Structure formats: structure tokens, C-alpha cells
């Protein structure tokens, strides 16, 4: 007697944009409506993620299985392996029953997103599961729109750089490109501002925090941010 393999659900990585709830695609909207399970990044200390706040505007959460996933913010490999295995196992409990999951993420699922690692692990541990990503508007493009800043035209080159405490690397990025967007810039803001002053580029830079959201803040004069502590979701755009 032959047995028929049970078809698993599909894992969708859905980009819901940088903050403004209207910046989602029609496809993202449809899949959020159709998928019985909505997975979202869950904050350990309470409070809703941007992604969840956006989702709640478009679906009735009482009609869905809402799967809040905590992602470890640590560099300890044992902790990372344990927590990620737990997260993927939570998803598998639904996928093995043939239930589709819409994992919603800020920005785009393939650009500095937790979905990248999740998709990789699911493919490794459960290769039978279809994994599909749905592109979204990234904070980089959201910032360009809010600043009225053409990032690249013609043969110009643009770089998206995670800001870090490496003066040489940050300087080289600025030297080698016509435009640079430093993401996660808050933790090394003073270093970058000093570098801009040194390269006479301070007047070419702007900083945006929580871009396109109702809490958005924009600074056109980056010098006034020296010594300030900004939130994690802060980026800086520099256009020569």
C-alpha cells in the first residue's frame, strides 16, 4: 500500500515596509489575508514591533494564529543556536500540518532581515517546505523619498553600509561611492560625524529615525547630533 506524503505549508517572508502602513504591496496584503498563521518579531520587553502594528491594521488577529517569535540579540553561538532552533521548531509545528505562515518583517525580507536566517534554517532542517519572499520597501528607499534625495543616477554608485566602529572602513565607503546610507548608525554616530567633518561632507548628510512612521524624526544638520543618543532604527544618508 502506498502512502501519500502530506504537503507542507509554505513559509512566506513578507516585507511590510519601513513604518508607514500604506507602504505595503497588494501581494503582501493578499497573503496576510489568506495565510492562517501570522508570524512576527516579538519584543522581549513588551511593546509591539512595527511589523505587528502594520499587520493589525489589515487583518483581524482574532481570526489568525498569531505567532510571536523572539529573536536572540546576542553573539553567544550556543544561545543563538538554541533560540533559533526553538523559533524554527515553532514554525514547523504549523507548516507540517499544511498551514501557510506569513512571516512579516519591517522593510524587505532579503535586506538585513531576520527572515534571511530563518529561511536558511528552514531550508536546511525542513527542505520540503517551500520558502517564498515578497519584497517590501526598505528603510533606505523610504529615507530617500522622505529626504527628497536621489540616491543614484546614471553611473553613480550607492552603498548600504552597516555603521560600525571601524574608521578606515567607513571612510573608504564614503570615498568609493557617490552616495552612502549608513544603517544602524546610532551606536557610532559621533565617529561618523567626525569623519564627515574631516572629509568636508557634513553638509551632505541627513539623519532619519523611524523613517515614514508616525514617530519619524529628521535632522538635516547632523552636527547637532554629536553626543546624542538615538534609537536603534536610525540611519544616515550621505550624497556627495
UniProtKB/TrEMBL annotation:
Tetrapyrrole methylase domain: residues covered: 10-221
Superkingdom classification of source: Bacteria
Pathway in which this enzyme or protein is active: Cofactor biosynthesis; adenosylcobalamin biosynthesis
Species the sequence originates in: Paenibacillus apii
Keyword field: Cobalamin biosynthesis, Methyltransferase, S-adenosyl-L-methionine, Transferase
Gene Ontology MF: a single term: precorrin-2 C20-methyltransferase activity
Family that this chain belongs to: Belongs to the precorrin methyltransferase family.
Matching NCBIfam families: cobI_cbiL
PANTHER family: COBALT-PRECORRIN-2 C(20)-METHYLTRANSFERASE (PTHR43467:SF2)
One Pfam family linked to the record: TP_methylase
InterPro entries (UniProt xref): 4pyrrol_Mease, 4pyrrol_Methylase_sf, 4pyrrole_Mease_sub1, 4pyrrole_Mease_sub2, CobI/CbiL, CobI/CbiL/CobIJ_dom
EC numbers for this chain: 2.1.1.130
Gene Ontology process terms (BP): cobalamin biosynthetic process; methylation
Name this protein carries in UniProt: Precorrin-2 C(20)-methyltransferase
